[in-house]
Structure formats: structure tokens, C-alpha cells
Amino acid sequence: xxxxxxxxxxxxxxxxxxxxxxxxxxxxxxxxxxxxxxxxxxxxxxxxxxxxxxxxxxxxxxxxxxxxxxxxxxxxxxxxxxxxxxxxxx
Length: 90
What we know:
Blueprint: E1 7-11, H1 15-22, E2 29-36, E3 39-44, H2 48-58
Antiparallel strand pairs: 1-3, 2-3
């Protein structure tokens, strides 16, 4: 399955709660994924006023991304191109 295009917004709410809050609005939301207990990622393509409204609605629950949160991993499980592969023989 190809990765979904769009920006990601981390939210400190469960995926079902985010879906309930966004129901009927749209605003360029492509998908909502659960990333842990009471945490989810909103994948969106919102711009302009739609982006402002989306952020305003989720602002009390928004989370600042940290280093551990990465884009979706490669489906083949390969490391990124700039990371050297570990040598299992050492």
C-alpha cells in the first residue's frame, strides 16, 4: 500500500475521539491513525483557512513532534538511504 500524501499532525486524543470531533468538517483530512494509547496522527492536505480551522479545533490536544516520531517506515524494512546498514558479521 503506498504511503498517504499529506502533512501529519500529532494529537493527544484517541483516533475515535478525533474522528468524532472532525465529523462533518472535512478540511482536507485524509486519514486518522492511532499511534498509541490516547494518541493519534491526523494526515491532512489542508491549506489556508481550512488549516487554521483544523489547528484551532485540535489545538488543545496538539502535540509537538519529537525525534522518535518518523514518517511511515519503509514497507520492505530497509534503513533510509543515509543510514549505513549494520554488518551482522561483526
